[in-house]
Design goal:
This protein is mainly α. It is built from nine helices and no strands. The longest helix is centred in the last third of the chain and has 40 residues.
């Protein structure tokens, strides 16, 4: 949706670059919030499937997770900041921070903890299990990003190859939007297993704690 709206905005006001950039920025922010919001819903749905719990209709789940949206964004920001700061030291501390706080978002979405409590709970969950958790997390992360990058490269190559060099700006914007939406649709096929794998690991750790 955000890609389509960006394309339409570009067609309507293509002569006003400053206004176009402002609209694209607003759409980007709204798209980020929607993607994050639906990400928490997806996490909850996969958790319910794993636990064999009934899944409410999508509208009820979206409304329910509206309450936790800002907490989820806050804990993601804090964990990302901690990981980024640890990179200034060495790779090993960064991996330790990644494992410590990886499940913070799960604690916010599934247990309704505040961001700082969620980070403490995530740390407690992996304490003493670092070498068991690390390869499983890295494996799922690497597989997801490799597949996502490959899909993006293939679609970009297809866009470059199929489109003639001389094409109108409007047609190019529509084709770019189409390829972008196709990329998101294909990406969903990767997102589900990439969320499911650490979710299963999360519940396995909860059973052992």
């Amino acid at each position: 949706i955000s890609i389509l709206l960006t394309t339409i905005a570009g067609i309507i006001i293509s002569k006003n670059d400053q206004l176009l950039h402002g609209i694209i920025f607003v759409i980007f922010v709204l798209g980020f919030l929607c993607k994050f919001w639906f990400g928490t819903v997806l996490l909850d749905a996969i958790s319910r499937i794993y636990l064999r719990l009934p899944i409410p209709n999508i509208y009820e789940m979206i409304r329910a997770h509206r309450r936790h949206l800002w907490s989820a964004i806050a804990v993601s920001f804090l964990t990302t900041l901690a990981f980024a700061l640890s990179l200034f030291a060495l790779l090993i501390p960064a991996l330790i921070v990644l494992v410590w706080f990886f499940f913070s978002i799960y604690e916010v979405v599934l247990e309704q903890h505040t961001p700082l409590v969620a980070m403490k709970q995530s740390h407690a969950l992996v304490r003493g299990r670092f070498w068991m958790v690390l390869p499983k997390l890295l494996g799922s992360i690497i597989i997801f990003y490799v597949c996502y990058i490959l899909i993006g490269k293939v679609l970009d190559a297809a866009l470059t190859t199929l489109l003639p060099e001389m094409i109108s700006e409007t047609a190019y914007l529509f084709m770019t939007a189409f390829v972008g939406m196709l990329s998101h649709i294909v990406g969903l096929l990767i997102v589900v297993p990439s969320v499911a794998a650490p979710t299963i690991l999360y519940f396995e750790l909860k059973k052992r704690s």
